[in-house]
Amino acid sequence: MQLLRIILPRGKGSKFMNILKDNGASAIGCFYGEGSAPSEILSALAIDKTKKEIVTALIEEESVKKIIGEISEKLQAVNSAVAFSTSLEGENNMEYVCLYVIVDRHQGQKAIHIAQENGARGATVIHGRGSGEAVKSKLFLSMNIEPEKDLVIMIVKKDMAEKIQKEIYDQMDLRSQGKGIIYSLPVNHVAGLVEQNN
């Protein structure tokens, strides 16, 4: 079984969810996020975020290559979209890994800037809420206020991953309790990714 993620411009998710459903995928979902990729035009306009949808699904191992092949052309037509899968078992022979950084809300952009300074191309941020033993929700007007979090997702080459992880870990002081976490998962299949250079 593999977990497939497709990161797309906002409004394109439903089309890809239907393709996945038609190809036997299960547990299909769609989340909102923000994308960030280096662009001279966006920088000149002081816009470094684009609205994204993240489609996720579980796919049988034998169907992944077929589905990635089918959506690969559609991803090129969409532009600024990427699809990748992670095996939930077995080994990874790809040259990419997926880095995940979970930090307090509004700290995700800092992680992205550090990663881009160290060779990463783009990333996607998903906003959510945190929960854990060390995290205490605050009571305000009889309502629990849970701490907001940024989940940053980025695909990087294996040989760049360790340096990027170390720089984010050190510069964002993730060794301190409650500051955040960074981890990586292997990528088995990928389509639509802009080539990265060290």
Shape: globular
Continuous helix count: 5
Taking pLDDT < 50 over at least 5 consecutive residues as the criterion, the unreliable ranges are none
Spatial order of strands in the largest sheet: 10-5-9-6-2-3-1-4-11
Write down how many β-strands occur, each being a DSSP E stretch of 2 or more residues: 11
Into which percentage range does the β-strand content fall?
35-45%
Q: What order do the helices and strands follow?
A: EHEHEHEEHEEEEHEE
Distance, first to last CA:
32 Å
The largest sheet is:
9 strands, antiparallel
Q: Averaged pLDDT, please?
A: 80
Based on CA atoms alone, the radius of gyration comes out at 17 Å
Summarize the amount of helix as a percent range.
Answer: 25-40%
Would you tell me the structural class of the helices and strands? alpha+beta
Verbal overview:
- The structure is a single chain.
- The chain is α+β, with helices and mostly antiparallel strands and 198 residues long.
- Helices cover 27% and strands 39% of the residues.
- The protein contains five helices and eleven strands.
- It has helices spanning 13-22, 40-44, 64-78, 108-117, 158-171; strands at 2-9, 26-36, 50-59, 82-87, 96-104, 123-129, 138-140, 143-145, 148-157, 180-186, 189-191.
- A hairpin with a 2-residue loop joins β7 and β8.
- The longest helix has 15 residues, at 64-78.
Question: Nutshell version of this structure?
Answer:
With 198 residues, this protein is an alpha+beta fold.
Topology:
Blueprint (H helix, E strand, L loop, with lengths): L1 E8 L3 H10 L3 E11 L3 H5 L5 E10 L4 H15 L3 E6 L8 E9 L3 H10 L5 E7 L8 E3 L2 E3 L2 E10 H14 L8 E7 L2 E3 L7
Antiparallel strand pairs: 1-3, 1-4, 2-3, 2-6, 4-11, 5-9, 5-10, 6-9, 7-8
